[in-house]
User: Which sequence fits this backbone?
C-alpha cells in the first residue's frame, strides 16, 4: 500500500501558523476556564519531557520544546526543517502565579493556572 | 488476508445492501483520519466529489489527479465519503440531503459515521467508542459488538445537522463516537475507531502503518485541526463544547 498521506499535496495559501516566518513550529493549544483555575493544554508530539521549558513573563507563558527528530515540510518546492516548538500564550488577569503547575503526558503539556480567589472582604449588610 | 478475500467477506456480511462510511473533520479529527485510512487500506476507487460554493478553495492531488475536499469512493458494495475540509452548517445540510438521495439510488442499507468525543477528565488510557443509532433495529448491532450506547447528552455542529437529516429521512445510521483528545489531532483514537468499524463490518484492517505515523500525523494535521476548531467557534449561538455523555 502506498503511503496514504504522502499521496496528497495540499495547495492552499494563508496558513494560520507562522512556522515558516520563524522556523519554529507553533503548537496547537487550548485554554479552558474553570471556576477556580485556567487549564492550558499544548500539543507537543515528538517531544521528551526533559526538552520542554515553560517560562512565565509579565503577561505570557512562553513554552519552548525541542523535537526528538527534525521535522521536514515541503512547501512551494522548498524543504523546511524544524527542530523546535515555540508558543507564547497571553495569560488572563487575576491569576495566582506562584502556584502554577504543569504535567506532561502522551505528548500533551497541561498547565494548571489557579485564579486568585481571595481579595478584599466585603461586609454583607 | 488478501484484498479480494476481504471484499468477498464484506459482501457476504452485508447481503444485498451496501454500506456507506462517512468521516469529516471534527473532534480530534477522528472521522477524517480513520475514514481516510479505511479508504486507503481497502484500496477503494475514487467515484466522484461533492461540490459546494461554501467549501474552502482547496484541492488535493492524488496520484496526479486533482480532487476537491469532499470525495466519494467505492469498492464492491462499500461506499465511503471523506472530507478534508471542515464543514459548516449549510454545507453539512446539503451534503446530508445529497446522502439521503444517494442512499436511495444506490441501495445503501446502512450508514456508519465516525467521530470524536471529548473525555471530560482527560483519562485517555482506556478510550471507549459509543454508538448512537437513528433506528431501534440497529441497537441490536451495538449490543452484539459490546458497544455502549450514547445515552444522554447534547450534540452540536456538523454531527447534529447530519444526524437530524438522516433521522428524519429514516436512514439507518450508526454514529460511532470514540473518546479522544478533542482539540488536538488524535490518531490513537482514529485507530480505535477503525478497529470498531472493522469489527462491525467483519473486515480486517491492519492499522500498523497508522500506528507508526501517530507522531508525524499529529504534526501534519495541526492546520486542519486549527481550521476545524475555528469552524466550531463560528457556529453562531452555539457554545464551544463537544458532545457529552451522561449515564
Assistant:
Amino acid at each position: 500500500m502506498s503511503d496514504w498521506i504522502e499521496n496528497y499535496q495540499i495547495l492552499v495559501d494563508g496558513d494560520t501558523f507562522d512556522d515558516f516566518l520563524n522556523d519554529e513550529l507553533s503548537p496547537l493549544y487550548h485554554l479552558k476556564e474553570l471556576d477556580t483555575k485556567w487549564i492550558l493544554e499544548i500539543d507537543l508530539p515528538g517531544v521528551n519531557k526533559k526538552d520542554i521549558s515553560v517560562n512565565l513573563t509579565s503577561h505570557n507563558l512562553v513554552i519552548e520544546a525541542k523535537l526528538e527528530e527534525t521535522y521536514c515540510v515541503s512547501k512551494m518546492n522548498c524543504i523546511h526543517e524544524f527542530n523546535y516548538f515555540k508558543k507564547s500564550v497571553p495569560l488572563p488577569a487575576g491569576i495566582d502565579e506562584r502556584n502554577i503547575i504543569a504535567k506532561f503526558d502522551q505528548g500533551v503539556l497541561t498547565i494548571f493556572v489557579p485564579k486568585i480567589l481571595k481579595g478584599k472582604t466585603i461586609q454583607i449588610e | 488476508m488478501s484484498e479480494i478475500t476481504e471484499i468477498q467477506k464484506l459482501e457476504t456480511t452485508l447481503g444485498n445492501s451496501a454500506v456507506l462510511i462517512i468521516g469529516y473533520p471534527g473532534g480530534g479529527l477522528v472521522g477524517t483520519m480513520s475514514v481516510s485510512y479505511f479508504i486507503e487500506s481497502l484500496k477503494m476507487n475514487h467515484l466522484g466529489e461533492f461540490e459546494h460554493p461554501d467549501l474552502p478553495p482547496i484541492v488535493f492531488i492524488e496520484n496526479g489527479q486533482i480532487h476537491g475536499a469532499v470525495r466519494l469512493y467505492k469498492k464492491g458494495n462499500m461506499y465511503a465519503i471523506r472530507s478534508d475540509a471542515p464543514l459548516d452548517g449549510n454545507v453539512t445540510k446539503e451534503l446530508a440531503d445529497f446522502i439521503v438521495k444517494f442512499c436511495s439510488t444506490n441501495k445503501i442499507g446502512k450508514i456508519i459515521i465516525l467521530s470524536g468525543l471529548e473525555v471530560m477528565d482527560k483519562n485517555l488510557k482506556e478510550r471507549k467508542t459509543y454508538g448512537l443509532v437513528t433506528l431501534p433495529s440497529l441497537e441490536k448491532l451495538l449490543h452484539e459488538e459490546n458497544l455502549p450506547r450514547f445515552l444522554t447528552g447534547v450534540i452540536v455542529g456538523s454531527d447534529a445537522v447530519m444526524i437530524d437529516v438522516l433521522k428524519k429521512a429514516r436512514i439507518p445510521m450508526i454514529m460511532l463516537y470514540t473518546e479522544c483528545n478533542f482539540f488536538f489531532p488524535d490518531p490513537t483514537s482514529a485507530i480505535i475507531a477503525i478497529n470498531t468499524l472493522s469489527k462491525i463490518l467483519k473486515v480486517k484492517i491492519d492499522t500498523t502503518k497508522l500506528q507508526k505515523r501517530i507522531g508525524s500525523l499529529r504534526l501534519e494535521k495541526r492546520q486542519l485541526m486549527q481550521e476545524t476548531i475555528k469552524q466550531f467557534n463560528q457556529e453562531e449561538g452555539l457554545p464551544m463544547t463537544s458532545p457529552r455523555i451522561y449515564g
